[in-house]
Amino acid sequence: MTDLLLLPGDGIGPEVIEQVRRVAGRLTNDLVLDERDFGGKSFDLHGAPLTDEALATAKASKAVLMGAVGGPQWADAPRDKRPEAGLLGLRTGMQVFANLRPALCFQPLADASSLKREVIEGLDFMIVRELTGGVYFGQPRFIEDLPDGSQRAVDTQVYTTAEIERVARVAFELARGRRNKVHSAEKSNVMETGLLWRRVVTALHQREYPDVELEHILADNAAMQIVKNPKQFDVMVTDNLFGDVLSDISAQLTGSMGMLPSAALGAPGMPGLYEPIHGSAPDIAGQGIANPLAAILSFEMALRWSLGRAEVADRLYAAVQRALENGARTPDLGGKLTTHQMGDAVLAEL
Ligand code: IPM
Ligand code: MG
């Protein structure tokens, strides 16, 4: 059985996943790795961004680690053939409905943020983004021609009680192991899905998690509070679209998108999907200067959450910390190291 399926994908994906391979090789000698084409690369080679075989292999693995998908060369492909469709198909195919996106300020990088040091120093909060529902998948969705020659586009935002409840449960459980506080972000002031979201979260809280502090917050206000006073947050649960936006804001707080990992989890015992939050970064792809730490830290999360190797994960996390303390910096962090040299820096600490 494959422990970890690697899906390097497009853009800087293969470059950063290469460093994960090196780190994995140093840390363990019994981890069974496998690899498949994914995203635009898979489309070019096999005619689909995610082949049935790759999805079946993903579902049969203990964990899946993705690099990145997408790039300008596929911008005009039909929507279901685009690299992003491969990623969405992987998320729904694996039924990983809860996306954990940490916003964490690494101490040595406190000055790399565009915000003042005192605002972000010590920051540690977690966005739990609903990942397999909402407007990303709601039907109907189409663009139609109107009699006057113009067009009309429709997307559908849809959530069921069960979808809201299962992701909120993940947030409450996480909070219990952290600082015991959940913010639930929606737009119940204008959206029906927001109203249902608030009701379901409230009911679940009363029924099963009265010991956890719960605050409802409107998603636009959440965006403002994240840049104003991010340290007030512990766990924030929100829908797919708001989570997409709020997690980019939160990632940038910490200095660089190149630092942050994520984990997408489904039902207990099912394989998790791990991805760096950064995208394929076509502007720097192929130059060997991408920061591999988000991918390495995604591997760290996989070791911890899906592969049952928390001790190895601890060692890896400490090695990344020390590499940063000793000044290892890729260009996104204001330094000069190449992707490979950043990999060297972590290996040296191991
Ligand atoms: C993300 C990305 C994806 C998303 C894209 C690549 C489909 O932005 O993981 O945040 O919108 O979910
Ligand atoms: Mg995004």
Note the topology.
Elements: E1 4-9, H1 13-27, E2 33-35, H2 40-46, H3 52-60, E3 63-68, H4 83-94, E4 98-104, H5 117-120, E5 124-130, E6 142-145, E7 151-154, H6 161-176, E8 181-186, H7 192-208, E9 213-218, H8 219-228, E10 235-238, H9 240-253, E11 261-265, E12 272-276, H10 293-305, H11 310-325, H12 339-349
Parallel strand pairs: 1-2, 1-3, 3-12, 5-10, 8-9, 8-10
Antiparallel strand pairs: 4-5, 4-11, 6-7, 11-12
Helix pairs in contact: 1-10, 1-12, 6-7, 8-9, 10-11, 11-12
3D architecture notes:
- Helix 1 packs parallel to helix 12 and helix 11 crosses helix 12.
- The protein starts with a strand and ends with a helix.
- Strands 2-1-3-12-11-4-5-10-8-9 form a ten-stranded mixed sheet, sandwiched between helices. Strands 6-7 form a two-stranded antiparallel ribbon.
- The longest helix has 17 residues.
- It has two domains: 182 residues, Isopropylmalate Dehydrogenase (3-Layer(aba) Sandwich); 152 residues, Isopropylmalate Dehydrogenase, CATH 3.40.718.10.
- The chain is globular and about 55 Å long.
- With 350 residues, the protein is α/β, with parallel strands linked by helices.
- The chain has twelve helices and twelve strands.
- The mean pLDDT is 95.
- 3-isopropylmalic acid binds next to helix 4.
